[in-house]
Amino acid sequence: ERRGLLKGEVGRGTFVRAAGSGPVPSLHDVEERTDIIDLSMNYPVNTDADAMLAAGLRKIAARPGVGRLLEYLPCRGRSDHRAAGAVWLRRFGIEAEPAEIVVTAGGQNAITSVLANLAGPGDIVLTESVTYPGVKLAAALLRFELVGLDMDEQGILPDAFDRACRGGRARALFCMPTLQNPSGAHMPVARRREIAALARRHGVKIVEDDIYGFLVQDAPAPLVSHAPELGFYIASLSKAIAPGLRVGFVASPPEFAAPIANVVRTTTFMAPPVLVDLACQWISDGTSERLAAQYRAEAMIRQDMARTMLAGLNYAANPAAYHLWLELPEHWAAAHFAAEARQRGVIVTPAEVFAVTSPAPRAIRLCLSAARSQGELRRALAIIADLARQLPDHSPAIV
């Protein structure tokens, strides 16, 4: 299976993959190719990146004492960096003091650092039935069990959450109430209040990843705001500014700030000071707000394009999201579709990558924001729409 030769499906059997339908490559497998359109990574295209980065670094270089950024800094982050993080979180409705904030080396480091303090071997962390793959990596590293919950277009179903908590082993709920990755589910206020009330009743911590919250204007208050004593709020700048910054912020109950910082110290020692300083400068001077507005407007244009070009196909998306979740016709398995799409020059991500429960949905994620231009996205969507309406070229053989 690792080599892409076989594929097992629960209840059906084990199949030989069609010729040329090996594993979907990562971004690094195709970075030297110019004939591939990669829609597998969720990140914004910034056409001003060269000038923006050069100007930002010049400002940092001109400040007195800039060499301090090459020294060891506190593992939870310098006080002025944590203050900038508090400003960033405030725009999403999180009122946290700098002392309650830990600066991390991106969202993945934040997720791992939080969950390492909440769950270990034998414990259960609950999440959506399809979730961000980095949480699956954290579960494998920390050796806790990840249990997926049934969901609808509004996110986790309260009844499913309530049932899963009754066993007593659930220590935390990891979720993305706003523009969930990959399903696009968006949780309204009433559902957030209900989930928070259930978490309080069962004593289950809430880990909220709000990495896409900046894309939604007038978004509901964060889920953790309805149960702040249980809440761990994670925000990263990977999608709002640039993925290469590797800067994230965690707001937690005060007693957890030091333990989370200790895991940051154990895993990365500290977030990279130069990048954190650059990110905080962009928060302070308004660059982050300008980029957020720019990315939001571009995302809406691309969703409109997808709405037209994928007409007649079944998919879920928010008008401002970077991605969409395309449900495939019955004759397509997600992994087979992804392999065929790659043969035609488009990389997408099959549902198996995100699935916590089995069998995985018959769906793929399309990252509209990753295309280098609207013209490139239009070509990719035409290929995907055409392929989805066709029958597979090869039928898998049972062994």
Secondary-structure element pattern, one letter each: EEHEHHEHEHEEEHEHEEEHHHEEHEEEHE
Name the poorly predicted regions. Answer: 19-31, 395-399
Mean pLDDT: 91
Shape: globular
Q: How many beta-strand runs?
A: 18
The helix content, as a percent range, equals 25-40%
CA radius of gyration: 21 Å
Largest sheet: 7 strands, mixed
State the assembly state of the protein chains.
single chain
Beta-strand fraction estimate: 15-25%
How is the largest sheet built, in terms of strand order? Answer: 4-12-11-10-9-5-6
Could you tell me how far the N terminus lies from the C terminus, measured between alpha carbons in angstroms? 14 Å
The structure class reads: alpha/beta
* Count of runs of 4 or more consecutive helical residues: 12
Give a verbal description of the structure.
Helix 4 (107-115) crosses helix 8 (257-267) and helix 10 packs parallel to helix 12. Helix 7 links the parallel strand 9 (170-175) and strand 10 (205-209). The strands form five sheets. A seven-stranded mixed beta sheet has the order 4-12-11-10-9-5-6, sandwiched between helices. A four-stranded antiparallel beta sheet has the order 13-14-17-16, with helices on one face. A three-stranded antiparallel beta sheet has the order 1-2-18, with no helix packed on it. The two termini are 14 Å apart. It has 399 residues and is α/β, with parallel strands linked by helices. The chain is globular, with a radius of gyration of 21 Å. The protein is 36% helix and 17% strand. The chain contains twelve helices and 18 strands.
